Amino acid sequence: MIILDRRRFLGTMAAVAGASTLAAIRPASAADAPVGFPEASSNPLRWPFVMGLLVAGDAAAREAEIAALRDKTSYRRKLAYASSDRKKEAFAEALIAWFATGKDVRFAGLIVVDPDAKWPNEDAARDKVMASLCTQLIETAGAPKGLVLNIPDKRKTPRDRTLRALVPVPADGAPPDMPNLDQAARFLTGCLYGEAAAASQALKVKLTGTLKSALKVEALSAANLAGKFTVAAVAL
Known about the structure:
Layout: E1 2-4, H1 6-17, E2 35-40, E3 49-56, H2 59-73, H3 89-101, E4 105-113, H4 123-140, E5 148-149, H5 158-166, H6 179-196, H7 202-215, E6 224-225, E7 229-235
Parallel strand pairs: 1-7, 2-5, 4-7
Antiparallel strand pairs: 2-3, 3-4, 6-7
Helix pairs in contact: 1-4, 2-3, 3-7, 4-5, 6-7
């Protein structure tokens, strides 16, 4: 796990305040660009707050691969980490194996805690903190060159608004919605949150354990597998 101390966090906030976009990864075209699928465990103020970003190269091919896993396991429902649906188990395990062995897909997570209740009450201050967190999430993923974010239009949270500002839509338009990859991002974020929040529901614990075994790590929160699964911790 990468520890981001308060000095670095404040430094990132200052840098974000001086720049409206992440210029180094600003995409000119969505074609052949790595596609990022951002997710979060919940709204801030429910701590720990966990943010996740799944990044896929040739995202259309990766989307089709997950669709094939659905066919193989006969699972058509929406995959949700929080669900206790036992029928999802075979599909979730297949998805974990796909992620762990895939060479063109990676995940980054940010575990945010607020031990001293410093989350701002004012909108402008909150937006600045959220921009810093989003920037650090993308940096934890390696700030992939040409990154394009896949955020469905219906999502209007402050986090989504901030991400859209940091990584503008390319000139040739946003990539199409890819629900399988979006759900994979949400599931991996959920597994990280479940460990950080000490979830006790049996299926959640089992699937988180399966993910740890597949990645060969003792704890997801301590993972620092470059190009596959990296996690950073931030204290406000």
